[in-house]
Design goal:
Immunoglobulin-like, globular, 4 domains, six-stranded parallel beta sheet, TIM Barrel, 11 helices, 38 strands, alpha+beta
Length: about 700
């Protein structure tokens, strides 16, 4: 599991000053002024790897509005790599602070740049930070902050250690309803259960207008003006204490900059420049911590995209960023390069919402270019008296076995910091308190699932729906490990789960795992010693054409894209290969293709030229077939074929019906009174070992 979550850093406090709230995370250095106005140089402050050092600069020069009148940056030069421009924040009075953390040991030199170049107490001040090896077990210190993995499918720590995103939803838990004691209690509960992320709003809240009293914490409201031009540092000082406490507990704060839905739109309140000021303040205060940025909640469009781009340009640490959406974070921005992963909201409610969540995740997973996809909001447990524990298990296992980069859970009462007599928002939602919601069983059961997955190389798992029956989920590593999730056992099911396509003569040890209690039931050694399945089924009719690519005669084929060639019984081509069998031109055909399991191979169903065709494309990411309608050299959005015939105009490319979502394309019959092409089933089977690179190998037969 996540291991012990320990550690307060009180080492290396080389100066006497401490944070106003007594933070145990910060090594602080302080610069003071002499009587002559010259700045004293401090001795280097010392901080451990991935811990936060804080620089304090004090100015005797006054400003009408220090928050907007002064722009201060610390330029930090690490022992290796380019300098980092670390924004500083106004901390009240004549104080400015900057925070810095690094995975590199050694001496880090810094100097300041201030928009007021005449202020020698703020401009061209310099110093050093000594970073020493980490001594703590906290994974956020030991392995570093979170980033996107090289495979663009998962998250890892800075050192490459896989990071399991199991999040909880605490949208309003920086407000004063949630007391400091309560915050610590909830943090301890979630850390013990294995949660690694908390999604929390530090800005305008959902479901309420800005500047309502409910927005306050112990220090008041975050801002004094609606355009966010006058900040209240005391609010953020108290927010510091809570967000730092999460990090000490080994939990990543996924900070939401504010809500964007129409009835509580922070963008309408502050404007795009106000939201940028707000985000600069957040980056300056929390960028040095192992945070994740959620630019806006239920936010979309060009203005939020502009803010996301500003965050990308301002954050020296390039923390992972996304948008919490109405549906898809990736679809909420007008430029995908401003986010790093696709967060989904799949809807609340009963089983219909739970069942609908996984197809949405699979569609996000299939989009190109690849980007980590995960559900960041779904049926909160017992939210509006729905979303009970069985739905929580279904979405957790359905997500993790369908390629998700993680999952964020939510519970009634907890997400809006509800307390007795004050639910935190209109009672139409829940009168559940956060103490009640904290103990809902789903949070425990998801932690048990995470603990089980972490015993295996879960970050290398790929979805394999072909390993199990419909309405179940499977993933793993062929020949090494298989996970199957059975949402329902079934009535009078005495035989148990059916494992499909089990490799021959590969021994496994099998067990059932109860996702409610965490109990294991050992089944012993399992090995498939039976005959291999027939390569192609249902080919009872005479073959019209068969090519095993064993000879040199390629006259039946014509290359329209990247050149192809024959080698060792395979047709081989690079990316962009489009090769047509021109010897057979007919309707009502059945075609079979044998290809590597990592090959993105397709059957062209109707062809005009290389820039205009309809293809049924197999994606190895989902082990499923999608339709792509290529027009003018561009790909349309991939879509799963739908049940039943689809009527299209005779001049348009033919569309297809599907009999099985994950295995074969079904028949499309000619409709009365219309001139349509029709195609019979297209059967796919994959048997040869996976190859590296972009090479595509396949065999094809038609009848």
């Amino acid at each position: 599991m996540s291991g012990a979550r320990t550690g307060n850093n009180t080492r290396g406090l080389t100066m006497s000053h401490s944070h106003p709230l007594g933070s145990t995370l910060l090594s602080t250095l302080m610069l003071t002024s002499t009587a002559s106005g010259e700045t004293q140089r401090p001795v280097p402050t010392t901080v451990e790897v991935n811990h936060v050092a804080e620089g304090l600069l004090e100015s005797t020069k006054g400003y009408a509005n220090p928050f907007t009148d002064v722009d201060l940056v610390a330029v930090v030069t690490p022992p290796a790599g380019p300098p980092l421009r670390v924004p500083a924040f106004w901390a009240g009075g004549g104080r400015w602070r900057f925070r810095y953390a690094s995975p590199l040991t050694g001496r880090h030199a810094w100097r300041t740049e201030c928009s007021d170049r005449d202020n020698a107490q703020l401009h061209e001040v310099s110093g050093q930070i000594e970073v020493t090896p980490n001594t703590e077990a906290n994974p956020l210190y030991q392995h570093g902050p979170v980033r996107v993995a090289a495979d663009q499918r998962h998250f890892v720590h800075a050192d490459g250690t896989p990071f399991f995103w199991l999040g909880d939803t605490w949208w309003k838990n920086l407000c004063k309803r949630m007391t400091w004691d309560g915050f610590q209690e909830l943090t301890a509960d979630r850390a013990a259960k294995g949660f690694t992320v908390v999604q929390i709003v530090c800005g305008p809240y959902p479901d309420e207008g800005a500047f309502e009293p409910r927005w306050e914490n112990e220090g008041g409201k975050p801002y004094e003006t609606r355009d966010f031009s006058r900040v209240n540092p005391a609010y953020f000082d108290f927010a510091d204490r809570r967000l730092q406490h999460l990090v000490v507990a080994g939990i990543v704060p996924a900070i939401v900059g504010g809500w964007g839905r129409g009835d509580c739109d922070g963008m309408k309140v502050a404007g795009v420049e106000g939201m940028k000021r707000h985000w600069r303040n957040l980056i300056a205060r929390y960028g040095a911590y192992p945070a994740v940025w959620i630019i806006g909640g239920e936010s979309e469009g060009p203005l939020w995209t502009e803010v996301a781009r500003y965050v990308r340009d301002t954050d020296p640490y390039r923390r992972p960023a996304t948008m919490h959406p109405h549906q898809s974070g990736r679809s909420s921005v007008t430029d995908e390069t401003v986010i790093d992963f696709d967060m989904l909201q799949t809807g609340h409610g009963d089983w219909n919402a739970a069942f609908g969540a996984i197809p949405k995740l699979r569609a996000a997973y299939a989009r190109t270019p690849a980007m980590p996809a995960m559900i960041g909001e779904y049926c909160y447990e017992e939210h509006m008296q729905t979303g009970f524990q069985d739905q929580q298990r279904y979405v957790f296992w359905g997500s993790l076995l369908s390629g998700a980069a993680g999952l964020t859970y939510g519970a009634a009462g907890v997400w809006h910091a509800s307390v007795e007599g004050d639910p935190g928002l209109a009672s139409v939602y829940d009168l559940t308190t956060w103490q009640e919601g904290m103990h809902y069983p789903g949070s425990t059961q998801l932690g048990l699932g995470k603990r089980l997955l972490e015993q295996y190389p879960w970050a290398l798992f790929e979805p394999h729906p072909e390993w199990t029956d419909k309405s179940r989920f499977a993933a793993g590593i062929p020949g090494e490990v298989r996970f199957l999730y059975l949402p329902k056992r079934g009535v009078y099911n005495w035989t148990g789960a059916r494992v499909k396509s089990l490799e021959r003569d590969v021994p496994y040890r099998a067990f059932y795992f109860d996702p409610v209690s965490g109990r294991r039931f050992d089944l012993g050694r399992v090995i498939n010693t039976g005959p291999l399945e027939a390569p192609f089924e249902d080919h009872a009719l005479p073959l019209l054409f068969e090519d095993r690519f064993e000879g040199t005669d390629a006259s039946a084929w014509k290359d329209y894209g990247a050149p192809s060639h024959r080698q060792d019984g395979r047709l081989i081509g690079g990316k962009g290969m489009v090769t047509l069998l021109e010897e057979v031109s007919d309707t009502d055909l059945r075609a079979s293709v044998e290809a590597n399991s990592n090959a993105e191979a397709g059957l062209i169903l109707r062809f005009h030229d290389v820039d205009h065709y309809l293809v049924a494309l197999y994606t190895p990411l989902l082990k499923a077939i999608y339709l792509h309608d290529r027009k003018d050299g561009a790909w349309g959005e991939p879509r799963p074929p739908e049940e039943g015939p689809l009527a299209v105009a005779p001049s348009e490319p033919i569309q297809l019906a599907v009999r099985q979502f994950d295995a074969s394309l079904g028949r499309l019959s000619e409709l009365p009174g219309s001139s349509f092409w029709s195609t019979a089933a297209v059967k796919w089977r994959f048997s040869t070992p996976a190859l590296n690179g972009e090479r595509v190998d396949f065999k094809q037969a038609a009848q």
